[in-house]
Amino acid sequence: MNIRAKISLLLLQKWPSIYFRLAKIPDVCTATRDAQFWDLHARLLQDQRCTQRLHERYNLWTLARQVRPLPGAYAEAGVYDGGSARILCEAKGEEHLHLFDTFEGMPETDPKADPHFVAGQFANTNRQMVVDYLAAFPNVHIHQGFFPASAVDVPPDRQFKFVHLDLDLYRSTLDGLRFFYPRLVRKGMIISHDYGNVTAPGVKQAFDEFLAGIDEPLVQLWDTQCVLIKTH
Q1: Listing from the earlier edge strand, what are the strands of the sheet with 97-101?
Q2: Is residue 61 part of a domain?
Q3: Which pLDDT value is given to residue 2?
Q4: For the segment 83-107, what is each residue's pLDDT rounded down to a tens digit?
Q5: How far is Cα 185 from Cα 181, in angstroms, rounded to an integer?
Q6: For residue range 180-216, what is the model confidence (pLDDT) as tens digits?
Q7: Neighbour-count burial for 83-104, b at 16+ CB within 10 Å, e otherwise
Q8: How many domains does the chain divide into?
Q9: Is residue 18 a part of any domain in this protein?
Q10: Dihedral, 33, 12, 84, 50 alpha carbons, nearest 10
Q11: What is the 3-state secondary structure (H, E, C) of the chain?
């Protein structure tokens, strides 16, 4: 754990009000009262599973909990080390969670759409590491391989209420939208990482292309996330 993470963990455990001030989270924000999230955040820091930024982790947590009353399962495409999947596990209760990743790094990339990525990036993970990390949670299904071919064993009648895409690439993101949107229940959400990230322009390109054919609201969040809500 780096020194910044160690200091953050110490402040969260002993002087959370100081941590909130340093993180520029105002006392009037309801997030500061969410003890369950901060306990989870502290454990992610301790486990060094913090690929996403603090605000993005909280967005993922609170939106995943918001849809709990809806029918359907949860999903994540782009699991990496399991940090964001852990957030979904804590938020989902007993619901099913489907996780998709090669666990061997990125597939072939499009130099024009994905100029900052190359095949094989994010390969410093493996399936067993994620299995072990999430072993305490029920109904977690891990699908290894290149998506969407890796979804072949998903039950054909499976519907989803919450999907987290963290795929970085144009083609992978577009495939994710094409696979999950038809299976999304009404009022379900697809939240994507990197929509507003200038180093991952393919993600926004994929959303723009996909949304040109449907009439659904897209909300851009701070820092780089966006949320697509199925209203029809």
Answers
A1: 140-144, 97-101, 73-77, 160-165, 184-192, 226-229, 218-220
A2: yes
A3: 78
A4: 999 999 999 999 999 999 999 999 9
A5: 9
A6: 999 999 999 999 999 999 999 999 999 999 999 899 9
A7: bbbbbbbbbbeebbbbbbbbbb
A8: 1
A9: no
A10: 150
A11: CCHHHHHHHHHHHHCHHHHHHHCCCCCCCHHHHCHHHHHHHHHHHHHCCCCCCHHHHHHHHHHHHHCCCCCCEEEEECCCCCHHHHHHHHHHCCCCEEEEECCCCCCCCCCCCCCCCCCCCCCCCCHHHHHHHCCCCCCEEEEECCCCHHHHHCCCCCCEEEEEECCCCHHHHHHHHHHHHHHEEEEEEEEECCCCCCCCHHHHHHHHHHHCCCCCCEEECCCCCEEEECCC
Q: Which domain holds residue 220?
A: 52-229
- CATH number of the domain bearing residue 201: 3.40.50.150
Report whether 180 contacts 213 (CB < 8 A).
no
* pLDDT, tens digit (0-9, with 9 covering 90-100), for 2-43: 787 888 888 888 888 999 998 888 988 999 999 999 999 999
To the nearest 10 degrees (0 to 180), the angle between helices 35-47 and 3-14 is 150
Q: Is residue 31 part of a domain?
A: no
Pick the closest to residue 106 from 208, 202, 26, 1 (CA basis): 202
Q: How much is the average pLDDT of 113-122?
A: 94
What predicted TM-score, i.e. pTM, was given to this entire model?
0.95
Residue 109 lies in a domain: yes
